[in-house]
Amino acid sequence: MEELYEQRNKIISAFLIAAFIGLFNETALNMAFVQLGKDFGEETSTIQWLTTGYLLTLGILVPVSAFLMQRFTTRQLFAASLIFSISGTLISAIAPAFTILLMGRIVQAIGAAIILPLMMNVILLVYPINKRGAAMGKIGLVIIFAPAIGPTIAGVVLDRLTWHWIFWIALPFLVLALLVGLRFVRNVSEVQPGKLDVWSFILSTIGFGGVVYGFSISGELGTFLMPEVMISIGVGVVALILFGVRQLKMERPMLNLRVFKYPMYVIALIILMVCMMAILSTMVILPIYLQNVLLLAPVLAGLVLLPGGIINAFMSVVAGNLFDKFGPTKMVPSGLVIVMISLFFLRGIDATTSPMFIVALHIAMFIGISLVMMPAQTNGLNELPRELYPDGTAIMNTLQQVSGAVGTAVAVTILSITASGAADPVQGMSDGLQNSITFGLVIAVIALILSFFIKNVREQ
Predict the structure, then answer these.
(1) If we measure between CA atoms, which residue out of 287, 304, 324, 369 comes closest to residue 31?
(2) Percent of the chain residues topping a pLDDT of 90
(3) In the chain, what is the straight-line distance between the N-terminal and C-terminal CA atoms, in Å?
(4) What's the confidence (pLDDT) of residue 6?
């Protein structure tokens, strides 16, 4: 353990590069939705599948990561994830049609589904409990900063080049991560022989896939009340219940659901899900609003979102160090209050709002998010015993990605429903944005209430 700790910076560096590009890819195309719709002749609700499909793939495959981390070495999984990410990025870069681009996004997501839980598991195994806050702060820089900076970089690219270059720019960084990883990544866990339970995988796929798909098609249909939506979500929920029952009966489950016996882990999980819904839904809605309502060029719309991403990168590292000193009990509620205030004022923006006002609110929201996510996540994982680390990280990453996909789909659906019923398209878009942000504000209140029950695991 001591030897691994001494090598920690080299081991983690390759993971941070790979995870940054993987999460950057989640939101980078959001700024190009308007241009993609024109190029491919598709509606926004269809183009949105480039983000939802990416998140859906993560939701389906991340649950398998706990099994993969026990079955294969760290180096094998790292190399496999980078190969998928590089292949998917290349397919997307040369995509001549929407279906090819969507396929490339799904291949990209396979790589991200492996790297994210693997990175978190390595952190837990390499760092002692009293040093994890700072380490998780570095991960926070990646997990929050990468999706936040994605639209900005994409906006600059679209001002001079086509959307294809969003992928061409990411490609060399993925190759660099692969080369650095092959040089420095070490095997940090023991390989255990075993077979993947096929029925568990099928039920997991139907469960998470059904829920996300149901919410996603509601955006295309313009309502939550169509039979296709309710049937898909219903089948998904039933499959998840059957999946849970099967895991509890198995001697060696695909996902060990006994992590839910640990209360701080559960509270952290719910708070993280709410934050991901707020972050990713905002990252989809704001670029559409900035371009279609305020009529900003993509590069200007991207610059509006840039300061929040930069401040957040700094604050994630600061929050990690603060966590090691003070714990989560004051940080998490304070952060959620800041998020709620930001969302409250964001829900009042319209066609006359100053872009600088949106910049200020965006910065405030991400300061709040940085005070919430890493402290809550680290505290929750700290409560788990070592043998449950793979399962705890897999479940946490799965539900964060699924909740992000659901939040994105719900926000777009609310926007579509509101805008379609308005006589004035611009006013309808503004009203839809306000309603979508109100949804985020309501679930943030739920997270705030839960945050008052957090206890510092290290003190216990």
Answers:
(1) 287
(2) 10
(3) 24
(4) 60
| CB of 349 closer than 8 Å to CB of 285 | no
**Please, what is the average pLDDT of the chain?**
81
Burial letters for 5-43: b for 16+ Cβ neighbours within 10 Å, e otherwise?
A: eeebeebbbbbbbbbbbbbbbbbbbbbbbbbbbeeeebe
3: amino acid identity, one letter: E
Task: Transcribe 94-132 into DSSP letters.
Answer: T--SHHHHHHHHHHHHHHHHHHHHHHHHHHHHHS-GGGH
Phi, psi angles (nearest 5°) of residue 190:
-85, 140
3-state SS string for 27-64: HHHHHHHHHHHHHHCCCHHHHCHHHHHHHHHHHHHHHH
**pTM of the predicted structure, to 2 decimals:** 0.76
CB atoms within 10 A of CB 203: 23
Helix (H, G, I), strand (E, B) or coil at 162: coil
Higher-pLDDT residue of 13 and 8 is 13
The Cα 433–Cα 344 span in angstroms is 12
Handedness of CA 317, 399, 8, 76 (dihedral sign): negative
pLDDT tens, position by position, 92-130 = 999 888 889 999 999 988 888 888 788 877 877 777 766
Helix (H) or strand (E) holding 155: helix 132-160
Confidence of residue 132 (pLDDT cuts 50, 70, 90): low
| DSSP for residue 452 | T
CA distance 417 to 413: 6
Q: Quick one: which of 305, 282, 229, 303 has its CA closest to 415?
A: 282
Query: pLDDT at residue 69 above 70?
Result: yes
Give the Cβ contact number of residue 420 at 10 Å.
Answer: 12
DSSP 443: H
Rg (CA), the chain: 21
Token duo for residue 260: 């839910």
What integer is the mean pLDDT of 408-412?
A: 79
